[in-house]
Predict the 3D structure of the following.
Amino acid sequence: MAFFQKILIANRGEIALRIQRACRELGIPTVAIHSTADATAMHVRLADESVCIGPPSARESYLNIPAILSAAAITGADAIHPGYGFLSENARFAEMVEAHGLTFIGPSPAHIRMMGDKIAAKTAMAGLGVPLVPGSDGAVATLDEARAVAGRIGYPVLIKAAAGGGGRGMKVAASAADLEEAWRVARTEAASAFGNDQVYLEKYLDRPRHIELQVLADGHGHVVHFGERDCSLQRRHQKLLEEAGSPALDAAARDALGARVTAALAELGYRNAGTLEFLYQDGQFAFIEMNTRLQVEHPVSELIAEIDLVQEQIRLAAGETLGYTQADISFSGHAIECRINAEDPLTFSPTPGRVNVFHPPGGPGVRVDSALYAGYVVPPYYDSLVAKLIVHAPSRREAVARLARALDEFVIDGIKTTIPLHQRIVRDKDFLAGDYTIHWLERFVGGE
Ligand code: MV4
């Protein structure tokens, strides 16, 4: 029995392929959508059917809701998987998919909307017993109120936009003297960037790790977690390398966090996949945001837990129950993902162009998720992620050794990529020791 008749994949690149692979194994035909710039893309070649939905600009193609719904209608798709980015966390899109009688493969529009409002997300999680960073109790409406909150929690403080997230719309105030300026700038930027000037305050943590927890929920009260990912290695809020588990956590800390979070999401009635983001410093977790989509780095969790998260998303969207409990999930070994971008490894400027040679690594414990092929021309219009190299091994030490040899095997010729940067990271003493925070990479690459 198939869960759906046909799934439209509202995305491109490696994640469109990843979702197609899950559909194939479940026996579900797929529809690719693409812009005119992606007519020769691998996700179009490998789909059962494809529909061109617009010109290169994402606004007119991968974000074009009427065109995507029309493509679903003319091909007879009965479900839409949004992937990550694009429309994946757009509550309006999820609502419109449902209004057209189709299934959105993801959470309810109400939960997407709740988690898109960072204040609503924090208020909900705090009420369900998930720990937060010390800060304001909800939105802060006036400068006087901001002064009072900052006085209570102590400087430095961070002013964040309710509609922000992923690092957009944040201002630090190091001391009381800086608060007024930070306040005004944060409000003004929030209003112009998001059309919403609501802000809130948090104590600024100076050297946290970024640790996130992967969950699956069936909307019938069953919620499980697949352990954490350490995503601290980032530059300008772009993650470069992620690992599962975190070098900073042990099984007891993971189990304790997982128990709290799964109980909270069961109470909330959440369904499908989700990721809770935490800052972790001095042995304490503080919830900051929740992502209501499949994430780029999901494969590291798949490898340590031996699960197919995309197949699970599809199954859960069809209304199935989880069918297993936390006690059925165990973690084995260590997994690391390198994001390989079409970027100069020193300046990070994008390097679209023709790929002449594509030779991915192989051998034990190596997975490559990529939509590249020899002769493909990387278009300049979209995200620069062109491949994910994911390795799995019994221990972190062995995973790092495997990653180093796989990076050395990987050949992408014709365009510059970030492979040389990863080759340097995996040989660094701090990285080998697992000793890093969210600030480590920016120092490592320099010039910030
Ligand atoms: C913080 C923080 C320090 N203290 N909140 C940036 C992205 C957004 N998701 C939250 N972010 C941060 N919030 C407090 N109270 C530091 C960051 C932060 C960060 C967080 C995760 C990963 C990378 C980061 C890079 C710079 C700042």
About this structure: The pocket of MV4 is lined by residues 133, 158, 165-167, 202-205, 208, 210, 234, 237, 277, 279, 288-289, 438 (CB under 6 Å). The chain has 15 helices and 20 strands.
